[in-house]
Design goal:
Length: 322
Amino acid sequence: MIRRRHLVATGALLPLAAHAQAPGQAPRSMPAPGRREWAAQVPQIRLGVLGGESESDRLGRYDAYRKLFEDTFGVPTRMFFASDYSGVQQAFAAKQLEIANMSPAAYVGVWLDTNGGVEPILVTQEPDGSTSYVALMYARADSGITKLEEMRGKAMAWSDPNSASGYLIPRAELRAAGITPETFFGRTGFAGGHDQALVAVLQKQYDAGVCWSSGQGDEARGFTRGVLTAAVEKGLLDMKDIRIIWRSRPIQNGPVVVRSDLPASFKKDIVDFHLALPSAHPDIHKAVERGSAIGWLPTKHEDYEVFVDMRRAEASERRRRH
């Protein structure tokens, strides 16, 4: 039996959560409001929010979520807005955060940096019961680029060095297919986030970019969830203006992450809070998750071991080049 942590190297599918299940579970109740015993060790809850959107957009999406933590657990709750993925990683490493919803690669990055100082507790579930998404490579529709092979010698916008879909996954899959990104593309650069990469491509600063997406549903609407969905909903993108030229194998959705040194009772309350959120506060859930996600399922570090290998392979490749 092939172990999941070797799946990228062998070119097989990336893992779906082993515990993915069908939707339609009975609604759960929110934890009863009131201050907990763990508040003596966790006097405030600090929520990390990844970059990629403007601060006003993130505040609009997350403020009701933040307030619900305060109302439920009776401790002050504040948000930490990072300008990029590494900001949240560094804040976790410095023990300046208790919780964040992270990309899989960003989670593994801080797990490695802290020697297991963080742990994943929940993963987003899609309407079909899966817990995966895909990376999509897109080009402008007027560029004449219709497939990956036509990107040879062209300019490629990566989203963020700590992004799975916007950097690590595409590079790993290209290498597995015998393509060396450093020589295949004529020029590459980091845009600073998924949204910024999309803007850079539309403004003809790059020929193509990569972003995360559910890959499900109506392509004309930007699919059901992801960067393109949000851009279409905001009126920033007409899908007729871009063309999807490549898609990855399934990628495990990013986890809700907490520090490992926090009390077990705190972690249980956080899990219960999120499992009840979609039915108890659907508007807050929709704002935080965006698109078609139906909730969360429990997850564990073993579901992300493939990203540990990917991180280490990327580091080894950098050492080899230098």
